[in-house]
Amino acid sequence: MSRFVVLLRGVNVGKGNKVPMAEVRAALESLGHHQVRTLLNSGNAVFSSTTRSTTKLASAIAKAVEERFGVVTPVIVKSAAELEAIVKNNPFPSPESEHSRFLVAFALDSAKLLELHGLSSLLQPGERFAVNEHAAYLHCAGGLLQSKVGEAILGRAGRSVTTRNWATVLKLLTLAREGAT
């Protein structure tokens, strides 16, 4: 069995898109996945599966989320190996005190990530931004709320991606490693 991370975009934020994480865990188990663990209340889970295709996994999970909760949202699935590479290839290593100011954007389709390159023109002094086929990385020295790139990724320009701060990415990697067989 392989280990995977699932990231739901925009759930349990504000009043809309309520998706109880205990029920997400149950939904993943009902799809035949094992060693399911959720993290925080923002659409993060780690699981083991015999299915190897992240595209098929994302499609099945998106269908389950829509059927069970009435929520239509991008669902991104990454293998534990992909997440490991995303962490390893971080172009902006930063101290723990900066982890909340450092976002990673994920997409199921690398072309959607590469579309974010155009946001570089919005960078402000002290910000760093890099995009590759696996992830986009944004360090907001002045904080996410002051970042025009961050605002764009969280808004319209990032509709097909989802972001997590660096602390959450590292916690997901730890969970993915814990269940590896």
Can you walk me through this structure?
The protein is α+β, with helices and mostly antiparallel strands and 181 residues long. The protein folds into two domains: 2-83 and 172-178, 2-Layer Sandwich (Alpha-Beta Plaits), CATH 3.30.70; 85-166, Alpha-Beta Plaits, CATH 3.30.70. It has helices spanning 21-30, 54-69, 80-88, 110-114, 148-154, 166-178; strands spanning 2-8, 34-39, 44-49, 75-79, 102-106, 128-131, 136-139, 162-165. A four-stranded antiparallel sheet has the order 2-3-1-4, sandwiched between helices. A four-stranded antiparallel sheet has the order 6-7-5-8. Helix 3 packs across helix 6 (166-178). The mean pLDDT is 89.
Sequence-ordered SSE layout with sheet pairings:
Layout: E1 2-8, H1 21-30, E2 34-39, E3 44-49, H2 54-69, E4 75-79, H3 80-88, E5 102-106, H4 110-114, E6 128-131, E7 136-139, H5 148-154, E8 162-165, H6 166-178
Helix pairs in contact: 3-6
